C-alpha cells in the first residue's frame, strides 16, 4: 500500500494514532465502542470465550468483551493506544495487551474462540486479505471471525463539515475533497473478504448510532490531529488557515442547527471451517 492511495497502513497508523490519543478517546472511541458492542451481540459467544481483538485501539471491543466475562488479547501497532487499552482492562482478569502487527500475529494456530477487528484491518488495502487469513489461522475450527467497517465514504459524522469546507475553499491547489474510505463499505464486500480468507457461514448486518459533534469554537483545535490524515485538509490549512477556519466554523454551525445523520457501519461474521468441511475456490462450504 502507498500513502498516495490514501489507505491506512500499520506504519502510518503508528504515528497518526499515537498523535491523537486524547482526541480519539473523546470523539472516536464512542463510535468504535458502539459498533463493538453490536459485533459482540451478533457473535453470540458463550460466556468465557477467548477473544483476540485485532487493531484494538483503546480496547473498544476488548473492554465490553471483558465486561461480558470473556478473556483474551488486545493487540495494536500503536504503543500509545495499547497503553491506554491496558489501563482500561486493568479491572478485568484474563486479558493481556501487546504492541503487534496485525499482518504478523505472534500466536499459534487455533488459540482463540473468536477474533474481531473493528474499523481496523479493512483499511489495509491489498493486505486486508492477509490480515484476515492471520485471524482465521489463530481461531479454532468452528470459531468466529468478525470485522466492522463504516458504511459511508466519510466515516464518522464529524468529517461532514470538513468535506464541505474543503469544497467551499475552492482552491485549485487544494482540490475537491476526496472521501478517505473507498473499500469494504457494503455488507456483501465484507462477506466476500471473509469468504476469501477461508470463512464459511458468512453473513452481515447494518448498525447505526448518533454521536456528538464538538462545538464550532473547539472543532478545529480539538480534531486537528484527526483531520491531519486528510491531504486536502492539510493543503487548505497550509494555504490559508484563517480563511479555512472561518469556512469550517460556518459549516459546523450549520450542521449543529440540523438533525445530525446517524453514523452507519456494517458488521460481517464468518465461521472457521471444521476439519470435516472443505472450502472450495468459491468460498462455499461443503462436507
UniProtKB/TrEMBL annotation:
One GO MF term: methyltransferase activity
Pfam families (UniProt xref): Methyltransf_25 (PF13649)
Stored SUPFAM superfamilies: S-adenosyl-L-methionine-dependent methyltransferases
Source organism, top-level taxon: Bacteria
UniProt-listed GO biological process terms: methylation
Gene3D superfamilies: Vaccinia Virus protein VP39
Residues of the signal peptide: none
InterPro entries membership: Methyltransf_25, SAM-dependent_MTases_sf
Chain ranges of the Methyltransferase domain: 51-143
Keywords: Methyltransferase, Transferase
Name of the protein this chain belongs to: Methyltransferase domain-containing protein
Species per Swiss-Prot/TrEMBL record: Amycolatopsis pithecellobii
